[in-house]
Description:
This protein is mostly helical. The protein has helices at about 20-25, 70-85, 105-125, 135-145, 160-175, 200, 220-255, 270-280, 290-300, 310-320, 330-345, 375-395, 400-405, 445-460, 475-485, 490, 505-520, 520-530, 535-540, 550-575, 585-605, 615-625, 645-650, 680-695, 700-730; strands spanning about 45, 60-65, 145-150, 155-160, 285, 345, 355, 365, 415, 420-430, 440-445, 630, 635, 670. The chain has a 3-stranded antiparallel beta sheet. A 3-stranded antiparallel beta sheet has the order 12-13-14, with no helix packed on it. About 30% of the residues are buried.
Amino acid sequence: MTTPGAVSSYDGRSAVFAGADVCHEAGLALPDEASRPRFEDDIWDFSHVAGLPAQMARCTRRFDFAAITDPRWRLVAKELVLAMLVPRHVSVIPLPRAYRTALHLTTCAGRLGELTRFFAWLGDHGVPGLEQLDTWLCEAYLAHRRYVLDEHGTVVGEQSHGTRRSAAQAVVDLVNYRELFTADRVSADLRPWGGATASAVAEMPCGRGQNKTPPVEGTVLQPMLAAALYLVSTLGPHAIELAQEVREADRTSSCKANGLRSAGLAPVAEFTSLLAEYERARTPLPMLAEHHIADRLADGWDPDDLLLPVATGVLARQAGASQFWSRWLPALRGPLEASLAVVGVEKVFGRDAVEITAADGTSSLPWTLPLHRLEAVALVGIVRTAAIITLATVSGMRASELMELRVGCRRPPEEPVPGLTRFRIASKVVKGQPLGGTDDEWVVAEPVYRAVELAEQLHDSPQDGALLFGRFAFDVRYRWFKNWINSRSGQRLGLAPIPDGPVNLRMLRQTLALEMAYRPGGVLASKIHLKHIAVATTEGYASRPGGAQAELLAEVNKHESDRNLDLVLAEFRNYQQGILPAGPGARSLTEFFAHVDAKLDATAAKAPKTQRSDRDVLNLLTKRAKVLHLGPANYCWFTDPSRALCLKLAGTPTADRPLIGMCDSARCPQATHHPGHRPVWAEHADRTKIFIGQIGTARKTERTRLQADFDRALRVVAEIDAASATMDEESS
């Protein structure tokens, strides 16, 4: 049947794409032996297309048009999807509102899924053809997709903005590609929602107010990352052995192991020999998992039967039989019960576990308790998830980039200067890149490098080039990880519980971006390391109001202000406890703290029953927090630009910010040193001493310069120690 708006000569074939090779038209590469989807096929299988990202789910690689029951609308869907894949086709180019850039297969799969729902909805509402589609039906479908209904049809919530946009986009696409369709078309005067875009119809937030993705809360991030690092560094080597133990057990005790014989007479001799070996090695018999014990009880086993928890099937395969038959039990009960009385029964994996130090450092204990097979596999999976969390949190890689990691992605460590090692890993940038992605490398911290190494060793088939993680659902993995950490298993190891709170890969990436942007030059460093899309990051450099980079800077500045206020409050509390600052600016800072303390005392004298809160203190410290800048090993209190040594050296005395890279905190009158800076100066002194010892006697100038640097570092360390000890001596 042909509707009035369709081509009158419709004969069941497309007037535009009939007989087309879909992959050839879309420029998608396929292996020679792979089947090539044709336009007339009801299933277009793109599973073997070269360059598909690992993040792309298998279900989205098969376009199922058969789910659309009406053959006319099925043809419309095929023509629409192929037109989105081939925007340069001679029949697509003339369409004024068609896409000019080919859509990704993932996007097309989503469009097809929504179009299938829309056509099914139209069929349920008795709409015979697209010509009958009007604005009322468009609004009705949007309302249908907008609200969440319970089993009684009552509205209980709203769908996301993205779901509503997909619903509106299905209608908009049918309007924009109207002239292309052969079998059925919407009317020429249909303008749903006044011609507004799908994003406007769905009321998508613009994101100008703030970044839509918040960082992970510190109360969640700290215990989560601490637990992940502990599992990677401490449990990781033992988890590798456990994984090998499981694989070996599967090879020798599996039902599919080679050489096993089928049913026959009870193998009494084989069992007797096997049980004698168990007794000789003092090895407990394998224990059956709890759910299998429940199955035995349901089958009528006596709860008091001594053999109830014994994994007789495992023993049968070790004795050379494919399984343990119930008719064997009378003949084998005696030997089994005798051995059970000697060696007992225990879970198979994790026996005699090596002792480790607990995460809280309070005790030593076995790294795991004995485990069933499924428990052992789960524990290996938890350690693998810890590696993923370490990777995502410390490297900031996108989900698509993590899933493209392959075995062998670690590059050999480099040592550009003695004592400084640089670690790199290779993956692909997928976002914003052509199909297949672009090879790239990430400079990472050593914990990330070690986490990748652990993941390679935990891999089931670690051949070079195999996907390291493949496609994974981080939200599911994280939920299992958190539950394990908060369970008795995690608490036994002294791990801090992880509180409830949202965590996903985007939030972890945002958290790292903010932390990096705190540093001098950190915004540019974030752009390079996180491989941001150039257009989004250059807006801020061009000073365009409202640009993405300007938004990031505003967000960073807010977090930086909060952090500075916390640091000033911490140093004020140190002052109250007698821990004083050191350095040229110490006297000025101490006088400021004394002034604040005096104001608080005066307030308390007037209202002796009023408790002073941190809010009162913060109000007095806010002004000083605004001038705090963090140096590599000092705090810079930039209260007077004319006194800043870095600006004098640079010849820019009127600048409104210090040049932290030129800071000489041992001489600048606005710099202070605190106990937290002592390890940096002490390490610098130790390294300088080593360099001095390695310099030849002929290099007198270099030796003199290093000796002065060494003396300065020792002086700063001594001043920090002296300032910290001053009040202790007075109080004693």
